[in-house]
């Protein structure tokens, strides 16, 4: 029987925390307060303590460290620039965007370096990203993406595979070609975030779990049992930002979900290939993301039902039946040899989406309140760059990182309900319709997808 929710398969494999770190009680003073003990908050704390070991840094977490997207994601450490280059360039120029592309690319090596230095064992496997195209429209999108990324500073990192080269790597039915991105890694996210939490504690950071932020103001964060006061307060809540008071329209919590098979026997892997454990996706408009896990399973992720009315959040990672059915269809389409073995686990989570679909990090000097998020699904690597940048901002440093074009970028808020529910669901309906038309008719990229993306500013 398929296991549903309970945070994620990654936690099922490692075990959920059996105890919680003590909640915040009474009034506590710190130099820096951080809301959220996921990758963003933990990386920020780690870099703050590396720079200033004397700082008192306190993290507040509603559940337990790594409960959110940090412990549920697809395990893609990519260092990729997943947003609109032109939107950043309009504000700060092309050179600034090229600097950010290079900084993002460097995050993979940096995460691996810190993990090794801190003794974090997280099934990290340096590899390549392979994005497969299986029809005419996908081939056009693939070639456009290769050209686009090479034009924006990744000419030595991104290239195209022929049909034969693609099938020699992995046997995806109907594969016509693929884009390859060098210098990425596969990880086990729950292991990485738990190891990072322990590392920041060794550095002297205090983490309070079961400590939801009920009120956020300049200089203070109030919880049910206490108040944390600090001149710098950093919001590292990403997809959960909409749950904070007054921020329901700040970033949209977009649902993403995954399924995972049992460990597959060697003869199945002989037919599938995938011997390099590449992180794998496709060029569908409603794309998927997959990995071959360290214990020989296939994990398949995608959007499913994309958004809950009123920016509501899932309950401990439990996805709905429609989402599981959509992901199962992807598994059956791309990996028919694995389909008979069924699904061991299904889970979901949320990621943060700003109105312009572009990540942002910043600090308001007048209030002392900072933020980072809006990663739009590439948070494993982006959170590391965000943590380094937030640390520099909190320390008042002017560095190459604080000059990047995402710093202090503040897009407009999302529309009130029911407009944002209608907009997001209409977009994904159009994307799925476009995929079906492209597959059935063999046409170039469908205008339905273009209109769907325009509708929500994607």
TrEMBL record:
Q: Which domain of life is it from?
A: Bacteria
Q: What class of enzyme is it?
A: oxidoreductase
- State the EC number(s): 1.-.-.-
Q: Where is the FAD dependent oxidoreductase domain?
A: 31-393
Arranged from A to Z, the UniProt key words for this protein are: Oxidoreductase
Q: Which SUPFAM superfamilies match?
A: FAD/NAD(P)-binding domain (SSF51905)
Q: Show the GO MF annotations.
A: oxidoreductase activity
What name has this protein been given in UniProt? FAD-binding oxidoreductase
Organism encoding this protein: Gemmobacter denitrificans
